[in-house]
Amino acid sequence: MANVVIIGAQWGDEGKGKVVDIYTEHAQQVVRYQGGNNAGHTLVVGNETIVLHLIPSGILHPGKRCIIGNGVVLDPKIFLGEIEGLKKRGYMQDDSQLVVDSNLHVIMPWHKAIDLAREKHADRKIGTTGRGIGPTYEDKVGRRGIRMSDLVKPQVFRRKLKEILPEKNFLLENFFGEAPLDEEQIFAEYSSYAQQIEKYIGCCSRSLNKAIEEGANLLFEGAQGTLLDIDHGTYPYVTSSSTCIGGVCTGSGVAARHINGVIGITKAYCTRVGEGPFPSELHDEMGENLRKAGSEFGATTGRPRRCGWFDAVALREAVRLNGMTGLAITKLDVLSELDSIKICTAYSYKGELIEDFPRDADILQECTPVYEEFPGWGSDICEAKSMADLPDAAKAYLAKLEELVNCPAVLISVGPRRDQTIQVSNPFA
Ligand code: GDP
Ligand code: IMO
Ligand code: MG
User: Fold this and answer.
1) Which pLDDT band holds residue 299 (cuts at 50, 70, 90)?
2) Which residues are catalytic?
3) Nearest CA to ligand 1 atom 21
4) pLDDT tens across 2-12, in order?
5) DSSP structure string for 249-311
C-alpha cells in the first residue's frame, strides 16, 4: 500500500494533470486538496484534449473515486459545467465516482467581483486568474465563508447571505465603485446549484481513511506549484492556499503518517503566469521559442506563459520544502530543437554568489541567474519509450538535473499524450 502526493515543483503548469492521469492506474482514489478553478490541468487522450479545473484528473478512469477535499474552494457553476462536459464525452457515467466535501468553501459572486476589482485598481498587480480564489480563502480564514453544507440548507444560506452581502456590497460600491450584487438573484441561482450538487456531497476524510484501512492506494493531486504557496512562495506573488505538502493533511483530513511518496512535477525548463520574480526568465527570442515549442499559454486564462531556463536553485527549495522523494520531469521534448541548453545553478545578488533560494521576493527580483551550459541532442524524442531510447545528451541533461537538486527522476514525459511517458520507477511499488 502506498499513498502518493503529486506537487508542482515550480510556479504551476508543470504537467500535473498528465502525471495524475497516468498514476491513477495505481490508485483507487484521487483527491484534490487545495486551490480551486484557478487550476487548469490538461489531459490528452487520443485526439481529445480535456482541461479540468476542479474535478481530479483521475476522473477519466471509470471506477476510480475522485474527491474534492475540504481544502478546495469551489465555484458551483464551474463545477457543474465541468461534470456536464465530462458526461457529454462519455466519462463519469456513475455519479458515485465523485465526492465533494461538505466543509469546503464556496466561491460566491462577491469573491470574483472583489478579486477582479482589486486587480483593476491595484498599483501592484498580482496577475490573479480572477476566479475569486484569494477573497474566498480570506473569508474562510476570517470565519465569514459559506461552506457547501451551508449552501444546501436554505435557511442557513439565507441567513449567511443577509449577514455577509451588505458588507461586500459596501466594499464593491463605495470603495471600488463597482455595481452591487442582488441578494434575491444570488439566493435563487445558488440554491439551484446546491440542489444539483447535493448528491455528490460527502466526507473526504472518512472516504480516504476507510480506503486506507481497506488497503487502497491514494493519489493526492496538488494544484498550482510550490513557489505559489501562501507561506513558502514568492509572496505576495502567490496564490492563497498551501500548495506545499502541508496542504495535503489540512485539505483532506488524512494524517501525515499515511503519506509515503511525494513526487515533484517539474518542466525541463521553467514557466510562470502572472506577475512576480522569475530570475531565469528569458526576455529574448529564446523565450519566444520555448513558448512556441511548448505551447505555453495558460490552460485557465489563455495568457502567454513567461518562459525561461530550468532553475535548480528554485527546484532545490521545492525538494526541501516538500520532502520530495522523486521527480517527474515533463516537456523534455520541447528542448529537442536547441543546440545548447542552460541550467541556472546559482544566483548572483549584488555581486555575491548565492545558492539558496531567497525567501524575500524583493531580493529574488534583484537576483540574476548564473548558468551552466549543456549541449542539446538535436533529434526528436517524442516517441521514446524508455531511457535507452533517449540520446546521450538528453540522458546527461536529466542526470545533471537530478544531481543538482538531489532527487531522482521517477518519470520522464516526452509529449502530452499518455503513451509519451517513460516510467523510470513506480512510486506506488
Ligand atoms: P498542470 O496545470 O500542471 O496540469 O499543467 P497544464 O495542463 O496547465 O500545462 C501543461 C501543458 O503541457 C498541457 O498543455 C499538457 O498537455 C502539456 N504537456 C504535459 N506534458 C508534456 C510533455 O512532456 N511534452 C509536451 N510537449 N507537452 C506536455
Ligand atoms: P495549475 O494547477 C499557474 C497564479 C496566477 C497568479 C497567482 C495568483 O494549473 O498549475 P490566483 O487566481 O490563484 O489568486 O492567482 O497564481 N496561478 C497559477 N499559475 N498554474 C496554476 O494552476 C495557477 N493558479 C494560480 O497566475 O500569478
Ligand atoms: Mg495548469
Assistant:
1) confident
2) 13, 41
3) 416
4) 999 999 999 99
5) HHHH---GGG--EEEEEEESSEEE-SSS--TTB--SHHHHHHHHHTT-B-TTT-PBPEEE-EE
